[in-house]
Amino acid sequence: DSKGVADYHTPTNGGIQKLKFINEPNLYRIIFRSNKTEALNFQNWVFAEVLPSIRKTGSYSARQSAYEELNRLCMQEKVSKDKGTFHSLGMHRRKYEKHLNAKRIQTCKANLQIAFDGLHHE
């Protein structure tokens, strides 16, 4: 459809259902107008990571960004550990930082695994 919206009718157990599909450009228009948390997170990612990467390098690689994030988190954990030891920061603060960094590193590793799994299916 020239407006970027297409209607489809599909049979279901409850009868014929009308489905509305939008094209990718209109999907982004909706997301960038939304104030939902998920949409705002997506907007922040696009504005802070994707667009600057495209401007600087002409492309964006989620895999490379995930590696950079994992390296950054590992360095942050090392610095936090050294700083905690050197400056004798409170144990509660160090434990909290360690817990946060461990969760972030685990998430990063999981995202990298998903990216690699996706490569095998392409």
How would you sum up this structure in a few lines?
The chain has a two-stranded antiparallel sheet.
Q: β content, as a range? A: 5-15%
Q: What is the number of independent domains?
A: 2
Overall spatial form: elongated
Beta-strand segment tally: 2
Which series of helices and strands comes N to C?
EEHHHH
Helix/strand/pairing category: alpha+beta
How much helical structure, as a percent, in the residues? over 70%
Rounded to the nearest angstrom, the distance between the terminal CA atoms is 28 Å
Give the low-pLDDT segments.
none
Average predicted local confidence, pLDDT: 78
What's the main sheet like? Answer: 2 strands, antiparallel
Rg over CA atoms, rounded to whole Å, is 21 Å
Figure out the total of helices.
Answer: 4
Strand line-up across the major sheet: 1-2
Q: Which labels suit this protein?
A:
alpha+beta
What report would you give on this structure?
This is Bro-N domain-containing protein. Residues 1-58 form the Bro-N domain. Pfam families: Bro-N. The chain has 122 residues and is of the alpha+beta class. It has two domains: 1-59, no CATH class; 61-122. 71% of the residues lie in helices and 13% in strands. It contains four helices and two strands. A two-stranded antiparallel ribbon has the order 1-2. Helix 3 runs antiparallel to helix 4 (91-121). It starts with a strand and ends with a helix.
